[in-house]
Amino acid sequence: MLLKHNIMIKIQVKHKFNENLLKLSQSSDIKIAKTEWYEIYKETKENGMEYGLCICQHKIKHIIYMFNKYTKKTISVGTGCCKKFKLQQNKLNNRILEDVFTPSHI
User: For the segment 40-78, what is each residue's pLDDT rounded down to a tens digit?
Assistant: First the structure.
């Protein structure tokens, strides 16, 4: 019974991840939508600090902030959901990050 319960939780988490990611992405195809996101910052919440909330709706201690190059949205994900992006080629460099967050009227 416990195994069946764990499988149901994993299905629900995957569904929330996909559903929430697609809402914030340009593409409606989950495989393409995952390629729109870049890792921009990581932090770890110490004991006693309030945990973050992953896009799949789980509380997270190790938070990875991600930025969408098309929609200009940011999200936070935990280490488990971050693996779903396969980010080895999707790291933003500092110059691009500065361009994104610098107001264009300056």
Answer: 889 998 887 788 999 999 999 999 999 999 999 999 999
In the predicted structure, residue 9 carries a pLDDT above the cut 90: no
CB atoms closer than 10 angstroms to residue 33:
21
Q: State the Cα–Cα distance between residues 94 and 52, nearest whole angstrom.
A: 24
Nearest to 34 by CA among 59, 70, 61: 70
Q: How far from chain centre, in Å, is Cα 84?
A: 9
On whether the CB atoms of residues 57 and 17 are closer than 8 A, the answer is no
H helix runs in 49-93, sequence order: 79-82
Alpha-carbon distance of 85 to 31, in angstroms, equals 9
CB 54 within 8 A of CB 65: no
Separation CA 13–CA 98 (nearest Å): 33
**Residues shown for the chain:** 106
